[in-house]
Amino acid sequence: MVAGADFGTLSVRVTIMDTGSGEALAVAVAPYPLKRSAADPLLGQQAHADHMQALAAAMREAIAAAGIDGQDIAAFAADTTGSSVVMVDDALQPLDDYYLWCDHRAHAEAAEITALGRARGIEALDWCGGTYSHEWGYSKLLHFLRHNPGKRDKVATALEHCDMLVATLCGITAVDQLPRSICAMGHKWMWSPKWRGLPPQDFLSAVDPLLDGINAKLGGRYGSSDQIAGTLSAQWAERLGLRAGIPIPFGAFDAHWDAVGAGIRTGEVVNVVGTSTCIIAAMGADTPPVAGICGAVPGSVLPGAMGVEAGQSATGDIFEAIARRAGTDVATLAQGLGAMGPGSTGLMRLVWDNGDRTILTRPDLGGITLGWDLAHTAADELHAAIEGMAMHVRLILDRMGGGAPFLRVINAGGIPQKNPALNQIYADVLSVELHVPARSPVGVGACIFAALAAGHFPDVAAAQAALCPPTEVFRPNAGTRAPYEALFGLFSKLYLGFGQGAPCDLGDVLPRLRQFRLGQLAH
Description:
Elements: E1 2-7, E2 11-18, E3 23-31, E4 45-46, H1 48-66, E5 76-80, E6 85-88, E7 98-99, H2 107-120, H3 123-126, H4 137-147, E8 157-160, H5 161-170, E9 179-181, H6 182-188, H7 201-207, E10 221-223, E11 228-231, H8 234-240, E12 247-249, E13 252-253, H9 254-261, E14 268-273, E15 277-283, E16 295-298, E17 306-312, H10 316-325, H11 330-334, E18 348-350, E19 368-370, H12 378-400, E20 408-412, H13 420-430, E21 434-437, H14 444-453, H15 460-467, E22 471-474, H16 481-500, H17 509-517
Parallel strand pairs: 1-5, 5-13, 9-10, 14-20, 20-21
Antiparallel strand pairs: 1-2, 2-3, 4-7, 6-8, 11-12, 14-15, 15-17, 16-17, 18-19, 21-22
Helix pairs in contact: 2-4, 2-7, 9-14, 10-12, 12-13, 14-15
């Protein structure tokens, strides 16, 4: 038996699996608070102590639900959100709460890093898609240094949540012994073996002298998820109800391991659809950087493959907001959506309610819905939002794959199992067979890497064959292809017009949407 934890935005989910049968023996969830501020809507923080307390509670609950002795669990692994960053002192104690992934306060810092990186032609920036994000590590670290002058001298290093978690569980207290995930450091901190590590220190110092010497503080042991980072300390073994000394692999981000748990293979892409959407592809090792895509990192998803990441800053959050404003819930509002045809609401939704993560990397954008009339309902808006989400994904996949289709597209995360209408719309808009795991793969990826650490399988592929859930296939409806091609043309024009200032004739947009509304599908 192995255990895996998945730290999401609002809770941690612990899964215990039997690697012999492939059965999930138990799942337990424990919440923790998300700190927001009415005075600063860009703030999003969490406390390290809250994370660890929730992990202990969920682990003990899962062990009890499985009816097993926790001493029989052979290994443990965990993934987290990212870039969720905490600054620590020389004893690796937090100096403040985490800057959670959805904390967008560092937008000015990100813009400065991007501007100087482009001016200097920094190669590392190319592999981030050409734009450094306000959601990523250096931006958040610089924001902390600028706004916490009394704590600057105490900063020994900055840590991604997945690395802080592993260090805590293994009892590691020295910066030079820290385990650092190449998934986290590659996608969010511009690390790569291609340029022998982190981006040039002189470049970072030129962004702001507060970053002088920062790379020396980001040392430690860099490793991939198929490598062991340490073993569980006696202190945390007692708190979790596990056996001391069991192996713990290097951590990673939740979406990357969710993709592994969904069965991703090289040449495939997984949309991890949850609060936001992370789009994870495993591509050939020689894949070049792609403009507008969040990052390409060797080995961040599968050993020997180039892990490529993109995403949307809000997905489930948008659906929840639409339902909340209507005084209902998403499940109720989604009833009957499957009977709606392409664009039949006459609405078009640009899903920028929390900004644009990919392709534009702009936190300053807002959601737009065009085509309203007096008869529209909240269900109409939800349908348009799902269509808009799918069309945005299509833009991203076209960019990510260089126009070539992926061998398989998988919808994973927490939402697809609950919303068949969403899956069918994605299949129709993308014009591909869409695979959806029969049960949520959240936590399965963590169990796969725990099983590798325990020596239960020779490689990731063998572990996936034993542990990943089967998939249900949604096939595109032939009759939707032409109308969705027309809608996608409108969407692309509006996306680049509003988002990038591209020349855009708006005069035909509302009349075309009205034609869809009235069933006059002129393509």
